[in-house]
Amino acid sequence: MKRIFTLTLNLILFVGVLSAQEYGQASFGPNYSEQAYFRFSDLSAENIANESWDLAFSVEGAFSVGVHYNEAVPASFTGEAPKLELYLAPVDSWDAPIDLESITDTLYNPETSWDEGALNIVKDPENQLDFGWGVYNPVDHSVNGDKVFVIKLRDNSYRKFEVTSLISGVYTFTYAELDGSNEAVVTIDGAQFDSPLAYFSFETGEAFASPASWDLLFSRYVTPLDAGGGQIINYTVAGVLTGPGTQVAVAAGVPQYEANQEDYVDAYDSKLDLIGHTWKDFDLGAFSWVIQDSLSYFVKTADEHLWKLIFIDFEGSSTGTATFEVEDLGTVDVQDPTSNVATFGVFPNPVDDHFALSLELREQPSPFNIYIMDVTGKVVWQSRKEGVAGLNVYEFNGLDFPAGVYSLTVDMGGRLISSKLIKQ
Fold it and tell me: What is the pTM assigned to this prediction?
């Protein structure tokens, strides 16, 4: 079922006084011209213009490798709105000539993780060291660029660029005209940014930090939609993406006010578009937006705080404003098995054929699983262990899977604790 809301914000706020819930708003801007970075802690949003950035570099840690491009584009009712287009250049070197007629397939962000952008999806799935734009060197722990990209800017001009390297959290990035003129080199040091993403603008030639401490991003982005007849199209939608460290559990098919967080403790996931755009639909008959009344969300922010999110109104392109109800559910229950872990460490890292795992546990746990997965999600190694309250150190030898970057996960009754593991 769906319902149409025409409540004014004043009435919404009045009702909020009578309940335990609070109400928030975030706006895509008139004609979807802006992006809103929303945080739950104070129900505030910081807006920036769509065209303020072109590329986003993940700078959360020394080995964040994700590079996204800005798919946001304003709505236009008189013609095609200016937008970015990204392509992989079919060349083997930076100096090779580029024929525009040879680049036809547009790249898109997969909306799975901030460590997996459009520049990462061109990786070789058979090569665990390939991160798309570059390949990891296990000797010096650098990632070195081996691909050239072409971007069509909003003014219809083109640039070629490559991420030359990533060393100790510092990206080196080169761009130029297609003929190689006006070449520029940019250095982006993740340690200099107090936010999870570093944005770059070709118009200004400068990098700057994304808004800090945000949980949700209200923005337009491209997603594959079923057009019928077996045809899938890439379509620009106005939706919500989760911020780094934020997880979401979707309560679908349940009336919004009947969904309980306890029923979804195993459903949390960090995929970026779990909230997405499907909380609203456009009713052509009524010519208005309608909100799904059997769809709500439980959000766990990076600081382990839980919130329930219910959308109640959307004003469309006139203002771009979404209104929603927020319920503060407190911090993660201390009985959550993951909270039993006081400290968690893997050493050495990178590893060769052995490593040690340290777990400081507050209470004695039930037997638990430890496993290592490759970038495709395939389990390449696993073990089952028991523990005691206090410090536990487990040593593992004979790792016989290929060199590459993996995810090591401790599974305590369905609650997962993960860390990157680099094998040399």
Answer: 0.80
